[in-house]
Amino acid sequence: MTTIVGEQQQATDARERVQQERLSERERLKVSRFDSVTSLFLALILFLGAFVSMMFIVWLLSGEPKVKPIEPIIENPPGRGENPEGFERDFEPPGAEEVEDLQEPTLADTIEAVTDAVSSVAASLTTSNTNATASTQGTGKGDSRPPGPLGEGDDIIGRWERWELTFNAKGKKDYARQLDHYKIQLAAFGGGGPNVIEMASNLSGSPKKSVNQDPKSEERLYFSWKLSNPLMQFDQQLLAAAGIAYSGRNVIRFIPKDLENQLAQMEKEYCERKGKKFPHDIAKTIFESNPDGNGFSFSIVSQRYRVGR
Fold first, then answer.
1. Cβ neighbours, 10 Å, residue 22
2. Which is nearest to 249 in space by CA: 38, 140, 133, 92?
3. Cα distance between residue 224 and residue 236, in whole Å
4. Region Disordered: what ranges (predicted)?
């Protein structure tokens, strides 16, 4: 009997030892907090690595985006040659009837003009509570040549005649920033001096002077002030800062080809939305420059159409 009891006790002790060993082994193989955190970080690293690799492959395959330039809108009427004899579109000095208007005024005239200008600006500010506003209208860079064979393209009003650009400026600095943003150059020519065009750029910083010794080679559209306004003084000050004399000379603004194409595209889309025929039905298009984010942009504020169209 004693032997049987002893064997049973031994068997029980053996089972308990095995059970204890199993519990110890299970406890040893249990996932710890360190293992959980390590696995999480490893999974995140693998995910980020795969994501970055995919983005790198997409970047390699996509390449750099190419900006499609605006196609110029050609409005030249058919049948007209390039500068036929006797009808070149050259820069001409002021005529005899214009010299009187370009001469320096007397002291009495200057005091009277300054008084009138201050009164008109004050009245404008009081009435509309807006900043200084001025507009330009294109002159001179048109097609002054006689038409060739009659065609549908002959019956249009040229851009130099139908376009008007309006600037809203808080002061000289703001006005100069607008001209630089559009890459518009101020220029002066005529006045009895050499037959050259003196131009000023980088107007909002340190104005820089450049000279075109061959005015006949200039093909950009240019604008001059339609009416006397406060911004004319800014033009004179900016030209003087670039070392360009303006007294008794024609002061104009050259607009770059890219801007001209952009304005022409805007005009075409605006006209066609109104159900009109471009450019034949247009008599006048007025563009206005306004702040746009960190820069400026033109918008069409008015478009008039020819009578009977």
1. 10
2. 92
3. 13
4. 74-95, 125-155
Question: Contact, 223 vs 135, CB < 8 A?
Answer: no
**pLDDT tens profile 116-160:** 433 333 323 233 333 444 444 444 444 433 444 334 446 788 898
Q: Calculate the average pLDDT of the chain.
A: 76
* pLDDT score at 104: 54
Per DSSP, the three-state class of 182 is coil
| Biggest CA pair distance of the chain | 149
Closest CA to 254 of 216, 280, 222, 302: 222
Q: Look at the alpha carbons of 212, 217, 223, 225 in this order and tell me if their dihedral is positive or negative.
A: positive
286, 301 contact by CB (below 8 A): yes
Q: Which long-range contacts (CB under 8 A, 24 or more apart) does 64-70 make?
A: 69/258, 70/258, 70/261, 70/262, 70/265
CA distances from 286 to 135, 180, 222, 257 (A): 9, 20, 15, 18
Dist. CA 131–CA 169, nearest whole Å: 6
Distance from C-alpha of 133 to C-alpha of 65, rounded to nearest angstrom: 38
- Give CA–CA dist 246/262, Å, rounded: 30
Q: Centre a 10 Å sphere on the Cβ of residue 221 and count the other Cβ atoms it contains.
A: 21
Residue where the block lists tokens 């008599």:
283
Cα 265 from Cα 71, distance rounded (Å): 9
Element (H, E) at 126: helix 107-128
Q: What is the C-alpha separation between 75 and 153, in angstroms, rounded? A: 7
**Residues 193, 213 contacting (CB under 8 angstroms):** no
97 has a pLDDT exceeding 60? no
Taking a C-beta distance cutoff of 8 angstroms, is the pair 276, 162 a contact?
no
